[in-house]
Amino acid sequence: MELILKDIEKSFGDKQVLKKASFTFEKGRIYGLLGRNGSGKTTLFNCISEDDKQDSGTVELVDETGNDIMNYSSIGYAFAQPVLPEFLTGYEFLKFYIDVNKDNIQNLLSIDEYFDIIKIEKEDRYRLIKDYSFGMKNKIQMVCFLITKPPVILLDEPLTSFDVVVAYEIKQLLKKIKSDHILIFSTHILELATDLCDDIVVLNNGQLELVDEELLKSPDFEEKIMDILKEDSDVSSVS
Ligand SMILES: Nc1ncnc2c1ncn2[C@@H]1O[C@H](COP(=O)(O)OP(=O)(O)OP(=O)(O)O)[C@@H](O)[C@H]1O
Fold this sequence. Notes:
By secondary structure, the chain is α/β, with parallel strands linked by helices.
């Protein structure tokens, strides 16, 4: 399975954010998407998830036989700011989520088993989501992917709100599920990208570029990435 982006263009007014961005993401790999503030990472995710429509270019999800298998449930998108019904308890929300997606779930576990996986304590499961910490809300977003298992998972700066223990747990979880998914996450934390990802893709001047594997291993990797990102003339005045 591959997610194939071809010549994606997106502008807001006269600001051209994506300029024929093309890339092929493969199943079984975790991709770290690096780019400066305002380089267009969220815009790219919105085009992939169809939350926003690109001006031109195509997004295809193709299976092993080359058929486009993209449908409404292909993309799971975890927002940097979790969007959840705050008036429900965590337990009620998961029950609701399972209910509305029941035709699309394989190997369903019990709600408590899902809570166990994301390590939300028993007493917190029946509290209102509005009283959850930011990290707990993020965990609830993550568990939705474990339930419906969308083939493509987009994570917009996912681990920044987690404490070190939770970040470690979520990293292990992502590694465990990666063989069945295409995982792409945007981050500003270089260490996280190198630690967790199989590939690093840079969004620079509106285009996507794979960072050479040799460069990832090189001792002056950090410095070289900085050089690449500093070249982004579109955002150099932003950050
Ligand atoms: N709905 C919109 N209307 C107008 N401009 C927008 C809109 N959405 C994004 N932009 C502009 O597009 C550019 C890219 O924004 P985007 O949020 O995609 O960047 P980003 O790489 O995710 O940034 P950050 O790392 O700061 O989260 C920015 O200049 C932003 O102001």
